[in-house]
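Justification of computing resources. Each target in the renewal requires a structure prediction run like the one illustrated here; the chain below, 225 residues long, is used simply to show the kind of job we budget for.
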Amino acid sequence: MSEPLPLSADAAHAVDRYLVATLVGEDPALAAAVADQRAAGMPDIEVAPTGGKLLHLLARAIGARRVLEIGTLGGYSTIWLARALPDGGSVTTIEAEPAHAAVAQASIDRAGVGEKVEIRVGRGADVLPTLEGAPPFDLVFIDADKESNTIYLDWAVRLGRPGALVIVDNVVRSGRVADPADDSAQVAGVRAGLAMLRDDPRFDATALQTLDAKGWDGIALAVLA
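Resulting structure tokens:
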């Protein structure tokens, strides 16, 4: 039996490149979406390629028809989610910055999924109440300001169907979530969200660490009661 390779950032990135090349591959529309996001000066915080593929497969696995995304950015994850949906399926995605939403809309249209996506522009806490009364969502992906995670989780319950899947991104933050000396607003928001997933009987949840092109982070996954 061969000895395992020592864990290092270089080794982890090499494995990530191998997994992307083997299981995700190149996609011109997704590559263009990231390139346009960079050109527009938007932050480099979209999900990693393996994370995008995971979102896609989870949406397919649960047979999702209606998806809610909180945090559009440049539309990269939105495209992955929209491609997972059957004819007649839809993604409602919320983006606080109008300039970001415009870049995302162009990328989504170029990817050929514009008819499945509606971008709502505004702060999540303001837009989410306007969705009440619509058919419930099957999957909710939360990837916006971490300080508002508990607000977004509460709305996920209000707007999701029983049994819906909720995914919360960036819950490890390079290990800072477990550092008692870190009391930054984003880390505090992540901790509050995880505590809510633990304590609120409306959720059954777990979390996974990830090590990919975006570094050391993680996702929480929950099923609604």
